[in-house]
Amino acid sequence: MINKTEARKICLKALSYVKEGQAEIMLDQRVSPLTRIANNAIHQNVEVADVSISLRVDIGDRSGRATTNQFDEGSLKKLARQAAEAARAIGVDQGLPTMAKPQRYRPMKGYSEATAFVEPGKRAAMVKKAVALARRSKAELAGLVSNTGNVHAMANSRGLFAYHRQTSATMEITARQGLAAGRAEQTARSIGKIDPAKVARAAIAKCLGSVKPRELEPGTYTVILEPEAAATPLQFMAWLAFGAQSVQEGTSCLSGKIGKKLFGPNVTITDDAFHPKMNWSQPFDYEGIPKKKVVIVDKGVVKTPVYDQKTAAKEGRKTTGHGLPQPNTFGPFPINLVLKGGKTTLEQMIKSTKRGVLVTRFWYNRVVDRKVPVITGMTRDGTFLIENGKVVCGVKNMRFNQNLVEFFNSVEALGPAEAKEGMVVPAMKVRDFHFTGRTE
Amino acid sequence: MKSFAKRVIESLPARGLDYADVRITDTQAESIAVRNGIVESVSSARDAGFGLRVMARGAWGFASSARLEASEIPRVVKSAVEIARASALTRPEAVRLAPQKPARGSYRTAVKKDPFAVPLERKISLLLEADRLMRKNRKIKVAGGALWFTRERKTFASTEGALTAQEITESGGEISALAVDGREVQTRSYPNMSGDTRQAGYEFIEWLDFPGNAERAAGEAALLLKAPPCPAGETTIIIASNQLALQVHESIGHPIELDRVFGTEAAYAGTSFLTLDKLHQLRYGSDIVNVYADATVPGGLGTFGWDDEGVPAQRVPIIDRGRFAGYLTSRETASKLGEASGGAMRADGWNRIPLIRMTNINLEPGSWSYPDLIADTDDGILFDTTKTWSIDDKRLNFQFATEIAWRIRNGKVTSQAYKNATYTGMTPRFWNSCDAVCNMKSWRLWGIPNCGKGQPGQSAHVGHGVSPARFRRVQVGVSS
């Protein structure tokens, strides 16, 4: 991967071609080879790597951007010319935030050289181990093993330079037998921590537990959401409600609710890039501002959304370090959400449930009503009926339509939080969840 | 590009490979976005590189590089071959490819006005004018618009002797108005949510006429703030072409992908209810439902000279008078059916392998004029402009929402608008409830430039030609 010295050199070289105004450069390197499985065989095995730079040039209060993955002198000169031409073509001021001065960043670990570069044979061996278990159970596996190395660096003409590199490895397995499917996955900063047999066994057990699934009538149920399923409502709150722009424009359910109780008392949500369980994060945002821990909801009471420089300036406050590349239409975004967990295990949640549905994950989730907000989606890869404290059978996948404010007011129990979907999320037991349809 | 492609093919080891192909792509893009009178972004991008796909010991390997230099070729070749050999470790049977005559030639989008030659200032002022017109309405809290243009130059060569060059240019855009009033937030977009994109030049943007549609969009967004929700129940619905395009995409386009049927997307995009036993047997829709996968129709985002395996563009029957008639195929999957490839392998740039993707999945025009269809409908709801969509992993249970719906009463579209309009159903039952499809006069080709599939993720550019159609006894007004 590109080291700090090399990154600085590339950034400064790209900046040197800018002849007018202020400039900011972002360098991104991603190496993410991936081995994909289906029907107990590798059907796709790819090496994916790319490096790109994105140059922002501000001339007065007007900003242009150009991006390339070509690094020869001609391409870099063209990049500077295109970004400046774009800025000059803008006939009206943009109200741009000032480019950041040099900053100090809190050190963040998360890079493993052994994970950035993995021989294809090693990923194939992990697949082989999982497939051997599946064959014994007469199940078929689909899924992937991948390792990712990422470098993100930025510099600007005010002297700022920021650099971070990180790695991640993932194994995702869906076991299938007839109509039944079960999924398990594991993500870690280091590929050595991935246990292919454990992931495969969990997926196979779920699959075999949902053979001959029963049809369940749509209606209101208590649900137990495993962490991957519990990540879905949180993701939608991030997109729809937790950024300051949506609050300022009145499209967020947090608008007008700052300081007021919106969720149940057992719901505390923070954005914390430095959380020890976070498996994908960086210490600075896309404006080069250090990331701060932000308590968004504390025991059900709305505290604050996250800010970038532009939305913070509107309220005369400081950014929280949640900016996306500027300028943009989306506003600030909380990338590293943490839903505070509890002490109830998944087994305890099941045992305490008279009748309910256990959900492995949701799929094809979309917004139905942005302000409330209401979302819809389907269950997938392991949905089970719970009766009298026991999982009794698999059920055919169900469609839900759910008001998320009601959802976060109906949380009965929380498990220990774990890393899922780029966030840290616990399993949840939630009453009055709305299933509105089912499928075959 | 052609000489580089030949050089890659000539650099392959003389023995031990069953097959190989190389694609070189060089893509330029430009995008502009405005929001509330401010130009929020003007950007350009270039992305270039080459990808090498090899088959060794009956298994695939793929490697790529952004460095279009002769010195990079040996590393990429070595990596692709090593990966193929690793893949062979768990390959129970060797991959077979359906025979294909090596392709030769070139293809280029017909462009009247080169979008990259139109001055940025002109594009920006078009969006700002539409933005200004939308914000004349006091209920509009956020007005915005965007334009985007891409040009991909692509060369393909294979060890079988194929050598093709293609240049594909696309132009697209959108405007939208967001109205906010206390507890209510409603949006109207034109010409659709996420706009429309066509394989064409700037003439397409001019044809869309954003300023001419801005005030109507804003007015309808404001109207929705006071509109009642779509009533719940079973009713007759007419679906406008912008939404019907997505209905075709999700409930026909995806389930006909043969790789899904064979399970290779089982862990991600999903499988399909269209198992092999249903081919030529399943009554997919009513007798008036005819669908083709047509990579030859001018202007479609799924139009090309050859797919990314060098298979020429074709018009493949998918649904013939209601009966399921065919899949989207690759050389590998077609060989399992004993057929030739239907030419649907497409890759998202140089560092992705081709997957089975939609071309232009088109619903053939029917016999009804649009005014006659409305006049023939006593009571129903017209669904207009995509808002959200969700469908299960076998592509059966769906729920769609449109930005606006209108009450149809006694053969007329009334002024009664509904907000949060949803309809839901099961795919074959839904298409069998279709009793009218409008004619060529209201048939339009829509472009979807962001169809996701595959791991690592790929975004395909696909097209759907449709005209409005009527469906009976559909469940509407689903709520939480």
Radius of gyration of CA atoms of chain A, rounded to a whole number: 24 Å
| Low-confidence runs of at least 5 consecutive residues of chain B | none
Shape descriptor of chain B reads globular
Give the total of domains of chain A.
2
User: Distance N terminus to C terminus of chain B?
Assistant: 55 Å
Oligomer: heterodimer
Please specify the SSE layout and strand pairing.
The complex is a heterodimer of chains A (440) and B (480).
Chain A: H1 4-16, E1 22-31, E2 34-38, E3 41-46, E4 49-59, E5 62-68, H2 73-89, H3 113-116, H4 120-136, E6 140-156, E7 161-177, E8 180-188, H5 196-209, E9 219-225, H6 227-240, H7 244-248, E10 269-271, E11 294-298, E12 301-302, H8 309-314, E13 337-339, H9 346-351, E14 355-369, E15 374-387, E16 390-394, E17 398-403, H10 404-408, E18 411-414, E19 418-420, E20 423-425, E21 428-438
Helix pairs in contact in A: 4-5
Chain B: H1 2-10, E1 19-35, E2 38-56, E3 59-65, H2 73-87, E4 104-108, H3 120-134, E5 140-158, E6 163-181, E7 184-190, E8 196-198, H4 203-208, H5 210-226, E9 233-239, H6 241-253, H7 258-261, E10 291-294, E11 315-320, E12 323-324, H8 331-336, E13 345-346, E14 355-356, E15 361-363, H9 370-375, E16 379-391, E17 397-409, E18 412-418, E19 421-426, H10 427-432, E20 434-437, E21 444-453, E22 458-466, E23 469-476
Parallel strand pairs in B: 4-6, 9-16
Antiparallel strand pairs in B: 1-2, 1-5, 2-3, 5-6, 6-7, 6-8, 9-23, 10-11, 10-15, 11-12, 13-14, 16-17, 17-18, 17-19, 19-23, 20-23, 21-22
Helix pairs in contact in B: 3-5
Structure description:
The complex is a heterodimer of chains A (440) and B (480). Chain A has 440 residues and is α+β, with helices and mostly antiparallel strands. Chain A folds into 2 domains: 4-206, 2-Layer Sandwich (PmbA/TldD fold); 213-440, no CATH class. Chain A is 23% helix and 37% strand. Chain A contains 10 helices and 21 strands. In chain A, the strands form 4 sheets. In chain A, strands 1, 2, 3, 4, 5, 6, 7 and 8 form an 8-stranded antiparallel beta sheet that branches. A 5-stranded mixed β-barrel of chain A has the order 9-14-15-17-21. In chain A, strand 11 and strand 12 (301-302) form a beta hairpin. The model of chain A has no long low-confidence stretch (mean pLDDT 96). By secondary structure, chain B is of the alpha+beta class. In chain B, the strands form 5 sheets. In chain B, strands 1, 2, 3, 4, 5, 6, 7 and 8 form an 8-stranded mixed beta sheet that branches. In chain B, strands 9-16-17-19-23 form a 5-stranded mixed β-barrel. In chain B, strand 6 and strand 7 (184-190) form a beta hairpin. In chain B, helix 3 runs parallel beside helix 5. The longest helix of chain B is centred in the middle third of the chain and has 17 residues, at 210-226. Classes of the chains: A alpha+beta (440), B alpha+beta (480).
